[in-house]
Design goal:
The structure holds 2 protein chains of 2 kinds.
Chain A: H1 13-28, E1 34-35, H2 49-58, E2 64-69, H3 76-89, E3 92-93, E4 102-106, E5 119-123, H4 137-145, H5 150-163, E6 174-176, E7 180-182, E8 201-206, E9 211-215, E10 221-223, E11 250-254, E12 261-265, H6 268-276, H7 287-293
Parallel strand pairs in A: 2-3, 2-4, 4-5, 5-8
Antiparallel strand pairs in A: 1-9, 6-7, 6-10, 8-9, 11-12
Helix pairs in contact in A: 1-2
Chain B: H1 8-24, H2 34-40, H3 42-52, H4 57-66, H5 71-82, E1 100-105, H6 131-134, H7 160-166, H8 194-202, H9 206-217, E2 225-241, E3 246-262, E4 275-282, H10 286-299, H11 316-322, H12 325-333, H13 340-364
Antiparallel strand pairs in B: 1-2, 2-3, 3-4
Helix pairs in contact in B: 2-4, 3-4, 3-5, 4-5, 8-10, 9-10
The chains are: A alpha/beta, B alpha+beta.
Chain lengths: 294, 365
């Protein structure tokens, strides 16, 4: 049931129109951070207010929404955001990546390949890839205008000089269609290759920082690197202990106080689908057995 | 056999139920009413209204009750409500010279038209705990005296600045007809005009604005401020009604206004003259109003042709981007949300870097 005290998907229609305009501008200029008049949402800044506003502006009554945090549908903040849209928009929700028309995410891109018509909405804490090199917004905007990205390359070079490799493992900077350097939000760099050439529309919302940006379908996105130090996505050198996948991104779970640990897919829907299809990892049990045990 | 953790939804519901119970506290003690908070914790209500940017004492009191006395949480509740309200229009600027003052002091003149009115202030109280209050007896009713203003409540009480202005000793702020920007409706763009800076300071965190102002007094962007005038009282809010063709009173708000007089040695273009800092806050909040006027003055270095000595309080981007406690709290506290994925990638990076460093050391040995 929709809470009648508020408009469909919480935001009033004027606000949604303002956000849609920012989204359209973002789509027209891929990777460019569009300022928008972010509203105060009934959840704290830093907890996905940008993503929530973008999702609210995109949602239509027949949409099917999926919300994930750390790749999982049942993390507390994902649950909280999903409940918010169930209460304010009454839309159908799903955990299945393939069934969703809009997926709001924090820190991951789903393992399953996204398809045309799907929208992936990222929650972004700090949209400015140059922020930790130059704290001033007035300066960084100028640097983007002038395509002045030398500072970023120097930083990556210094990493290599110091550590022998680029020591950035998440929120790894990318260049969009050869123009804007963009922060892909704090996804692990393992996910970076999925940004490029995706059939889905990728939208990024930063509420506190009042920025929206976009990667339209089939946009070329390159992770920054050097010819002699090419970008390499990385993950734990294991297979999932539940579903045996060796191509998915893994969470490390501490299982006892003796150093025991196991590795499981961070994408819970991907892992569950594989287990339902009969894949069993080293520490997993066939799904039917586990159901019986619960 | 490992079963992945589930039950986020049940955990959230249980946490909310527990929170509600904690908020109510010991049921053997009468519940606090919103009216009690509104009328007896007025200064807390004022702060929530000021930083929530919404003048509604009842809702502010409700927010304080719901937030268990956490004022930033209460400000957040008010802001989240405010943002959903429709905008019918704008009032005409309030006339603080017609304020029904309950307090009005000037530190620059011993006496002045309208008089010095001490009003309900903590200023000269001795900060000794009053154990009579703990005994929960009601304070004795004060001897009622005639209103000390001596004038009708809305009499014109001129601003101190007007006296200085007569001799051109203080800068005149030319009136601007442009509609001031609204930072709750447009993204903040820098550099910001003074109207936008004042808006951000008015709803900024009291502690932050206080510390910024304090830093200017200790030499980080010194502006030599005197409190020209501080006044507190009710002011009528008027709105122009197109159907009527004139403005009518639609209500009144309590305001604290502070104007500072600041030394200014002149620059290449401007002869020596006093300059102004300005603070205007909902409710009674002298600390915030004075802090705001010091910050306002410090941020005006560019237009007055002063040097930027690199003081934090002179740095518009630093001050405006970090003054909002709802933004700051949210972002600060979001680091308690799960970060497994990022942490995992960091773990792998550290392990790889360590193993390479250790291998290199062993090879060297």
């Amino acid at each position: 049931m929709t809470d009648q005290a508020y408009n469909f998907a919480y935001l009033d229609e004027d606000t949604k129109r303002m956000i849609r305009r920012a989204i359209l501008k973002g789509v027209a200029v891929p990777g460019y951070q569009v300022p928008f008049a972010s509203r105060e949402m009934p959840m704290p800044y830093g907890w996905g207010t940008g993503g929530v506003q973008v999702t609210a502006a995109c949602l239509a009554p027949d949409d099917v929404l999926k919300v994930i945090d750390q790749g999982a549908d049942d993390t507390t903040n994902a649950v909280s955001i999903r409940k918010f849209f169930v209460a304010t928009a009454g839309v159908a929700v799903t955990e299945a990546t393939a069934d969703a028309t809009i997926i709001q995410t924090r820190h991951r891109i789903p393992e399953a390949v996204l398809t045309a018509g799907q929208i992936l909405v990222y929650q972004v804490p700090i949209p400015e890839p140059l922020r930790f090199l130059e704290p001033r917004e007035t300066e960084t905007r100028k640097m983007h205008e002038l395509e002045e990205y030398g500072l970023m390359h120097v930083k990556l070079y210094e990493d290599i000089a110091k550590h022998g490799q680029i020591a950035t493992s998440y929120a790894y900077p990318v260049r969009v269609e050869g123009r804007y350097v963009m922060d892909p939000s704090p996804i692990p760099k393992f996910d970076n290759p999925k940004l490029s050439g995706s059939a889905a529309l990728q939208l990024f919302g930063a509420g506190r920082e009042q920025r929206i940006y976009a990667v339209p379908p089939f946009t070329h996105v390159v992770s920054l690197d050097f010819d002699d130090h090419p970008f390499s996505p990385s993950k734990a050198n294991h297979a999932c202990d539940l579903c045996a996948s060796n191509i998915s991104y893994l969470d490390e779970v501490i299982t006892d106080d003796q150093g025991g640990r196991m590795f499981v897919c961070s994408d819970t829907d991907y892992c569950a689908s594989r287990r339902a299809a009969g894949h069993v990892g080293a520490l997993g049990a066939p799904m039917a057995t586990e159901k019986a045990a619960e | 056999m490992y079963v992945a953790v589930k039950g986020g939804e049940r955990a959230i519901d249980a946490a909310h139920a527990w929170l509600a119970e904690e908020r109510r506290g010991d049921r053997g003690i009468a519940a606090l009413s919103v009216a009690q908070i509104r009328t007896q914790l007025t200064l807390a209500v004022n702060r929530v209204m000021a930083e929530g940017s919404l003048y509604d004492p009842d809702l502010a009191a409700l927010a304080i009750k719901q937030a268990r006395g956490d004022l930033i949480e209460a400000v957040f509740l008010i802001r989240a409500y405010r943002t959903t309200l429709p905008r019918f229009g704008a009032s005409i600027p309030v006339d603080t010279a017609r304020m029904a003052v309950i307090r009005r002091v000037s530190a620059t003149f011993k006496d002045l038209p309208g008089g010095q009115i001490l009003g309900p202030t903590f200023d000269y109280t001795h900060r000794l705990l009053d154990f009579a209050l703990m005994a929960e007896g009601d304070a004795p009713l004060p001897q009622k005296e005639a209103p000390t203003t001596g004038d009708a409540p809305s009499a014109h009480i001129p601003h101190v600045m007007e006296f200085l202005n007569r001799d051109d000793l203080i800068e005149t702020e030319a009136p601007i007809d442009a509609t001031p920007p609204d930072l709750t409706r447009e993204p903040m763009e820098l550099p910001a005009a003074r109207a936008l800076r004042l808006q951000a300071l008015a709803r900024g965190d009291e502690g932050f604005v206080l510390s910024m102002a304090y830093s200017t007094q200790r030499g980080y962007g010194r502006t030599h401020a005197f409190v020209g005038e501080l006044r507190i009282g009710m002011v009528a809010v008027q709105m122009h009604i197109p159907e009527l063709g004139f403005a009518i009173d639609i209500g009144e708000v309590e305001l604290t206004e502070c104007e500072t007089v600041n030394q200014f040695k002149g620059s290449k273009t401007v002869p020596p003259q006093f300059t102004r800092g300005y603070g205007l806050i909902f409710g009674q909040s002298e600390r915030k109003a004075i802090s705001m006027s010091l910050c306002d003055r410090a941020l005006r270095w560019r237009e007055l042709g002063e040097d930027n000595i690199g003081a934090p309080a002179q740095d518009e981007e630093f001050v405006l981007m970090h003054a909002d406690n709802v933004q700051a709290t949210g972002f600060l506290e979001h680091i308690k949300l799960p970060h497994y994925v990022d942490f995992q990638s960091e773990l792998e990076l550290i392990r790889r870097l360590r193993s390479e460093a250790i291998a290199a050391r062993e090879a060297a040995e």
